[in-house]
């Protein structure tokens, strides 16, 4: 993964199942938080974007691999990297780590949708921020 945004979280008891491991669906919550913090770090206020331009980002597709279990009190890091930027589509790779152990990996396809819930072009201001992130990733990968 190229330069990625990193978001740290701790596993709480409520995140686990009867076996004491993180319930599989909670990884989706973890990567959602990672995406939200990545967008915030880019300078995008999602509530304002919705209120002023009537657009939101929705998950269109997700492929996930559960590689190793996390357990209560683990400190995890969600890495989010932008892979592809289309007219209305964003493709991300997200990985959940415990130290050097890769626990979960997902490819997430987001689509920008308008008030009628149909796909719309990503607003120019947001696109500029995303393109800047791609440039940053490319520069880091060439070092």
Number of domains in the coordinates?
1
Under CATH at level 1, the class stands as Alpha Beta
- Which stretches are low in confidence, meaning pLDDT under 50 for 5 or more residues running? none
Order of helices and strands: EHHEEEEH
Instruction: Provide the helix percentage.
Output: 25-40%
Radius of gyration: 16 Å
CATH architecture: Roll
Could you name the CATH homologous superfamily?
Hotdog Thioesterase
Could you tell me the number of beta strands?
5
Question: CA-to-CA gap between the ends?
Answer: 14 Å
- Within the largest sheet, what's the order of strands? 1-3-4-5-2
Can you put this structure into words, describing what you see?
The protein has 143 residues and is of the alpha+beta class. It has one domain: Thiol Ester Dehydrase, Chain A, CATH 3.10.129.10. A five-stranded antiparallel sheet has the order 1-3-4-5-2. The longest helix has 18 residues. The protein is elongated, with a radius of gyration of 16 Å.
Characteristic terms for this protein:
143 residues, alpha+beta, Thiol Ester Dehydrase, Chain A, 36% strand
SSE layout and pairing:
Blueprint: E1 5-10, H1 26-42, H2 46-53, E2 56-66, E3 75-85, E4 89-98, E5 101-113, H3 124-141
Antiparallel strand pairs: 1-3, 2-5, 3-4, 4-5
Short description:
With 143 residues, this protein is α+β, with helices and mostly antiparallel strands. The chain has helices spanning 26-42, 46-53, 124-141, and strands at 5-10, 56-66, 75-85, 89-98, 101-113. Helices cover 30% and strands 36% of the residues.
């Amino acid at each position: 993964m190229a330069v990625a945004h990193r978001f740290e979280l701790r596993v709480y008891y409520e995140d686990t199942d009867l076996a004491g491991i993180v319930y599989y669906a909670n990884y989706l919550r973890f990567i959602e938080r990672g995406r939200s913090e990545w967008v915030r770090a880019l300078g995008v206020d999602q509530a304002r974007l919705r209120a002023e331009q009537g657009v939101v980002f929705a998950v269109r597709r997700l492929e996930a691999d559960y590689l190793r279990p996390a357990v209560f009190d683990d400190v995890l890091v969600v890495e989010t990297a932008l892979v592809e930027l289309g007219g209305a589509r964003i493709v991300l790779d997200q990985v959940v780590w415990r130290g050097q152990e890769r626990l979960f990996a997902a490819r997430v396809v987001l689509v920008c949708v308008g008030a009628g819930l149909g796909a719309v072009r990503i607003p120019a201001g947001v696109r500029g921020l995303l393109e800047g992130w791609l440039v940053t990733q490319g520069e880091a990968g060439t070092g």
